[in-house]
Specification:
CATH superfamily of the largest domain: CoaB-like
Helix content: 25-40%
Largest sheet: 8 strands, mixed
Radius of gyration: 25 Å
CATH topology of the largest domain: Rossmann fold
CATH class of the largest domain: Alpha Beta
Number of helices: 15
Shape: elongated
Number of domains: 2
Distance between the termini: 40 Å
Strand content: 15-25%
CATH architecture of the largest domain: 3-Layer(aba) Sandwich
């Protein structure tokens, strides 16, 4: 399971070869970044036909090295500098061709050349058709890399392959590859901590790195944690939410330049630095806090986006008491009443709708982007209906019964349901990576909302449905 920060300060050289699984390297790069690593990408010529170097340059914030004959802008040899500076070289996906070339020292590409020139540990994640991986030649090459070279081989998994067949050859789960890189480095000191000794950053990284400031000037409100609905001064009804996901969104939005307000329920994680905090540990308090934030005294929207990551209790005791209820052998019976659906209420309010969904007031402009979370068990069949009922722009759904996804974990596997009908299922990722994916969508929605204003066109703010 991926834990944030295990690769802080490390330089990871990520080698990508010409497999259909090359598209997964984008998420692998994000995982390494989420772990705190600095990443430089190496590509074989065939790999560039599966995934664009520009995408990887934008995410790594460094030029992609795809030609063994290319020099760095200062005249240094790129793959030699990377080989000397990298704390680990990770080749994933690794094709049968690359395994054979590497096993026999044929340095015709930057990935092989870097591996030949480095004394850093090397991690290899093969990916190919099942029969190709099972072939004696491929297995012999794997044995050479593992037994003779000391490379860590992250064995491929069994599953559906690009050929349509089912068998062994599917690229290993990305978390396994990250774990292998962490284990390979172990307690070794950072090889080249001085940035001058590493491959250079892009001179125009500010333009390519949208994560740096693409929320600059925006106000993002995030709710996080659970709520505690009081039974008496000692006891309450709560849930298993720790606030980890909401805090990850706060940190990511802050790091991307936003002004962040955290509406904090019951948290079991530290509040991040650099954010405004409003305490709201009951559903009623959270509803009141958001009602005060959503609109300014002048009638304009009080924030650009709301990410409702808090797990608000669905019910509360009908009649909490102001003294501790004595324990009796007869037990205790509680009458529960439903809490308001805070997000659905905000969805109506920003559109100027009454409780029936009919026009009943003035909409709040510019319309904030609203993002909700849906914690489900046993599937996501109900999510599309929830999206419509709450009138949100994006609903982030997960099955909390799935291992590694849900309350108290550092990872999450979510599916993004958008108001325009798009559904995007993400792989299991660190929650910080999930947060950035959510913010990517928010940035797109805000840009679309504000574009008519910037161009002088007339349009309804927000890409949402009523």
């Amino acid at each position: 399971m991926t834990q944030p920060g295990r690769l802080a300060g490390r330089l990871v050289a990520l080698g990508i070869t010409g497999s259909i699984a090359a598209f997964k390297a984008v998420d692998l790069l994000r995982l390494f970044r989420a772990e705190g690593a600095d990443v430089v990408v190496l590509m074989t010529p065939s790999a560039t036909r599966f995934v664009a170097p520009l995408t990887l340059a934008a995410l790594s914030r460094r030029p992609v090295d795809a030609d063994v004959l290319d020099l760095l802008p200062d005249g240094r040899i790129g793959h030699v500098i990377t080989a000397d500076a990298a704390d680990v070289v990770v080749v994933a996906p690794a094709t049968a061709h690359w395994l054979g070339a590497m096993a026999h020292g044929l340095a015709a590409d930057v990935v092989t050349a870097t591996c030949l020139a480095t004394s850093a540990p090397v991690v290899v994640g093969p990916a190919m058709d099942g029969d190709m991986y099972a072939h004696p030649a491929t297995q012999a090459n794997v044995r050479i890399l593992r037994d003779d070279f000391g490379y860590r081989i992250v064995e491929p998994e069994t599953g559906g392959l690009a050929s349509g067949q089912v068998g062994i050859g599917r690229l290993a789960a990305l978390e396994r590859i990250v774990d292998a890189a962490v284990e390979a480095i172990g307690e070794r000191p950072i090889r080249k901590p001085d940035p001058a000794d590493r491959p250079p950053r892009l001179p125009d990284a500010g333009n390519l790195d949208r994560d740096a400031d693409d929320l600059g000037g925006r106000h993002v409100v995030v709710t996080a944690g659970g709520t505690a609905e009081p039974i008496d001064p000692v006891r309450f009804i709560g849930n298993r939410s720790t606030g980890t996901m909401g805090v990850a969104v706060c940190e990511a939005a802050r790091d991307r330049g936003a002004r962040v307000t955290l509406v904090a329920g019951t948290l079991q994680v530290a509040i991040p630095a650099g954010v405004e905090v409003v305490r709201a540990e009951t559903a009623a308090a959270m509803e009141a806090a958001l009602a005060a934030l959503v609109e300014t005294p002048t009638g304009r929207a009080g924030f650009d986006a709301l990410v409702m990551a808090a797990a608000v209790a669905d019910f509360r005791p009908a009649a909490p008491v102001d003294h501790k209820i004595a324990r009796t052998d007869a037990g205790l019976t509680l009458q529960l009443v439903p809490n308001p659906d805070i997000l659905a209420g905000l969805g109506r309010r920003v559109r100027g709708l009454d409780e029936t969904g009919a026009p009943g007031g003035r909409p709040i402009l510019p319309r904030p982007v609203l993002v909700g979370f849906a914690a489900e068990t046993g599937g996501l069949d109900r999510v599309a209906a929830k999206l419509r009922a709450k009138r949100v722009d994006l609903l982030v759904a997960n099955d909390v019964g799935e291992p590694g996804s849900g309350f108290g974990t550092s990872t999450n596997r979510v599916t993004l349901f958008a108001a325009d009908g798009e559904v995007n299922a993400l792989p299991l990722l660190p929650k910080r990576s999930v947060a950035d994916r959510i913010l990517d969508r928010i940035v797109t929605l805000l840009d679309a909302r504000d574009e008519p204003v910037q161009t002088g066109a007339t349009a309804t703010p927000g890409r949402t449905t009523s």
